[in-house]
Amino acid sequence: MDLRFLASAAAMTLAGCCSPLSSFFDAGDPVVGNWGLELPYDSMNAGHMIVSRDADGKPQALVLWRWASPMQVKDVVVDGSSFSFSHPWGFTVSGKVSGMLLSAKVVDKDGKDVGEVGGWRNPPICDKLSTKDAKFGEPIDLLKDGLDGWVTMDPKAKFGWVVTEEGGEKVLSNKLGLTPDGKWAGGGANIMSRQRDFYDFNLEYDVRVPKGSNSGVYLRGRYEIQVVDSYGKKVNEHNMAACYGRIVPKVAAEKAPGEWQHVNVTLYKRHLTVVLNGVTIIDDEPVVGITGGAIDAREFVPGPLYLQGDHSDADYKNMILRKAVN
Question: For the segment 213-249, what is each residue's pLDDT rounded down to a tens digit?
């Protein structure tokens, strides 16, 4: 565990937290809390866990393990500072908490050690803070330099990104295309902005997706704002402009595939507001943790934007970011 990171995280979180360090957790029930996890994999090693108790005092845990959405895990046991659970994907985790840190071991379904997990306690989110209080600086045009403003996150993956001009505007597109059977080819490269010092900010962009397409915009590299053809579908946490797997939009506001759609996102003091096509679909909701595919679980340090390119095609234009200045 990088203790320098923990020190910087503590400083940044305390700056935006309503509670003193001593009130972050109950010393008599120390496993309960919000945890960032560093998983034992060479890539995509970000994880997250929220441990709580139900009305009867029974422990429960919501766990994000690398990809997909957070899941309620099974067989959760909390005994003092020790804990264990079984994940639906077929492995078990057992560990121990010591103050602000945890350590755990992962064992697969055959009893083989997978590796060690490190973790740190995230402080409570302050409900007195709001995206409505944010003030922003000068606009940064993320497409001004075309592809020179972005780098691939996997040099071995197919690079499907191109920049073209449409109506006098630069358009950044992922073009993976379809397989002979009509399915999206997938397997493309995700790309990351060269500028990586984004923390709290407002981001606006126009996005266009073809029918059945799926992509995403990752804020600070850790929170995915979903990009998907969900036109006409029931509202859920995987729809267009949702915070993937975390926050359900209040209302459906997406347009049909093939149409340009405008997204306005504010990330500020661990709160999120999203306006899709002029309609507020997420209104100052707390961001309780990273989403699947995050670059890491270090939520209290700056990061890049990244665009998902490993699923299917999408087009972006007018991508403007303004950093928070307060």
Answer: 999 999 999 999 999 999 999 999 999 999 999 999 9
Q: Give the helix/strand (H/E) hosting 137.
A: strand 136-141
Alpha helices in the chain (DSSP H): 3-15
254 within 8 A of 215, measured Cβ to Cβ: no
Q: Map out the domains of the chain with their CATH numbers.
A: 3-122 (2.40.128), 131-324 (2.60.120.560)
Geometric angle at alpha carbon 283, from 280 and 287, rounded to 5°: 130
Predicted structure pTM score: 0.94
Half-sphere exposure of residue 3: CA atoms within 13 angstroms, side-chain side: 0
Which one-letter amino acid corresponds to residue 108? D
Long-range Cβ pairs for the range 43-49 (8 Å, 24+): 44/293, 45/296, 46/222, 46/290, 46/294, 46/295, 46/296, 46/297, 47/117, 47/119, 47/297, 48/289, 48/290, 48/297, 49/119
Three-state DSSP state, 13: helix
Amino acid at 169: E
Q: From the CB of residue 117, how many other CB atoms can be counted at a distance below 10 Å?
A: 22
Q: For the chain, which ranges sit under pLDDT 50?
A: 3, 7, 10-15
